[in-house]
Design brief:
Elements: H1 3-20, E1 35-39, H2 42-64, H3 70-74, E2 77-82, H4 87-96, E3 99-103, H5 113-125, E4 129-136, H6 148-156, E5 162-166, E6 191-194, H7 196-199, E7 207-211, H8 215-221, H9 252-286, E8 291-293, E9 301-306, H10 310-323, E10 331-333, E11 336-342
Parallel strand pairs: 2-3, 2-4, 4-5, 5-6
Antiparallel strand pairs: 1-7, 6-7, 8-9, 9-11, 10-11
Helix pairs in contact: 1-9, 2-4, 2-8, 5-6
The structure holds pyridoxal-5'-phosphate (PLP).
Length: about 350
């Protein structure tokens, strides 16, 4: 009921999409149905994309097998993600009522195309229907990047496998062209999501989601009672159909303020400064014999540990956090416990 809110959101998501170098097929300016929408969180974006994928595959399977019931089809649907994907991906599967398989990453914690291909082929042999893949660009634990290009090829070689990209944290860095190599293959995705509220100076909540074919989500959620009908139906995106709630806040306005206040170059410098600070911290760790890095530093996250036992590192964390000056959140992969220094405050300086 507020066309100005909708219009600004359409324009802001096009600005933001161009800032990231997203292909035009994701943007409203391409003139088709594609475009972006602001969700509250990355978890919602993953669920919404899963529901779109589910609607698309259901229609396709029903055309092939009109004799199958919805329940028959639903029990065969299967999705995939890296074992290192965020827990919200598993939750999306639970909420969407479908199976999601966590696949083993390579030794750099990236999901690779070959692993996905084998899993999909194995499931097809079992009579299952692969329909959804989440590629993570910047995993929560250690900021690893799935091989989107390889994964995209595998998805494209099967019919109706929807590829969603979860770049919740690292997506902000793609406003700097030098980091876009990490999203190579993005044109093969169906949906892309990142949280400007994580690392782009936008206040919580603001999670940007782009869809090439929003019609599957609109169709999945569309119930149109008389009290929600209006004269302008079809003339602009009706964002209530692109999300789970009906009501929505005017979140595009704060995005407008951030982009107009700072401008693209300032935001690029902001990201570059954080990554440089992370590399400085990396150097401090590697030049001190007591410490080791757990993961290659690509963004503003440094995963490090004291050489020695997990318990020693737990004690170090307890002391650091106990002082109340800085706060670190740990993680553990394959039984190795490590600390994570995340540069993410606008006030962080070298000192
Ligand atoms: N995906 C990734 C890669 C994340 O790092 C996170 C949060 O840390 C999420 C999803 C969940 O984000 P949200 O709180 O926006 O649902």
């Amino acid at each position: 009921a507020s066309p100005a809110c909708t219009e600004l959101e359409v324009v802001m998501l096009d600005w933001l999409g161009q800032m990231l170098g997203l292909p035009d097929e994701f943007l409203a300016r391409s003139g088709g149905e594609a475009g972006g929408v602001i969700q509250g969180t990355a978890s919602e974006a993953t669920l919404v994309a899963l529901l779109g994928a589910k609607a698309r595959v259901m229609q396709w399977v029903k055309e092939q097998h009109p004799e199958w019931s919805d329940t028959d089809i639903l029990s065969k649907l299967v999705g995939y993600c890296n074992k290192q994907a965020h827990s919200s991906v598993e939750r999306a599967g639970l909420l969407g009522g479908v199976q999601l398989r966590s696949l083993k990453p390579d030794n750099k914690r990236r999901l690779r195309g070959e692993t996905l291909r084998e899993a999909i082929e194995e499931d097809i042999r079992k009579g299952l229907i692969p329909f959804y893949v989440v590629a993570t660009l910047g995993t929560t634990s250690s900021c690893a990047f799935d091989d989107l290009d390889e994964i995209g090829d595998v998805c494209k070689s099967h019919e109706n496998v929807w590829l969603h990209v979860d770049a919740a944290y690292a997506g902000s860095a793609f406003i700097c062209p030098e980091y876009r190599y990490l999203m190579k293959g993005i044109e093969k995705a169906d949906s892309f999501n990142f949280n400007p509220h994580k690392w782009m100076l936008v206040n919580f909540d603001c999670s940007a989601l782009w869809l090439k074919q929003p019609r599957w989500i609109v169709d999945a959620f569309n119930v149109d009672p008389l009290y929600l009908k209006h004269d302008q139906q079809g003339s602009a995106p009706d964002y209530r159909h692109w999300q789970i709630p009906l009501g929505r806040r005017f979140r595009a306005l704060k995005l407008w303020f951030v982009l107009r206040l700072h401008g693209v170059e300032y935001l690029q410098e902001y990201i570059r400064k954080h990554i440089a600070l992370a590399h400085l911290y990396e150097k401090l760790c590697t030049s001190d014999d007591r410490f080791e890095l757990y993961e290659e530093v690509t963004m503003g996250l440094v995963c490090f540990r004291l050489k020695g036992s997990n318990n020693l590192n737990k004690e170090l964390l307890r002391r650091i956090n106990g002082r109340g000056k800085i706060h670190l959140v740990p993680s553990e992969i394959d039984d190795i416990y490590f600390l994570r220094l995340a540069i993410c405050s606008r006030y962080t300086e070298e000192s």
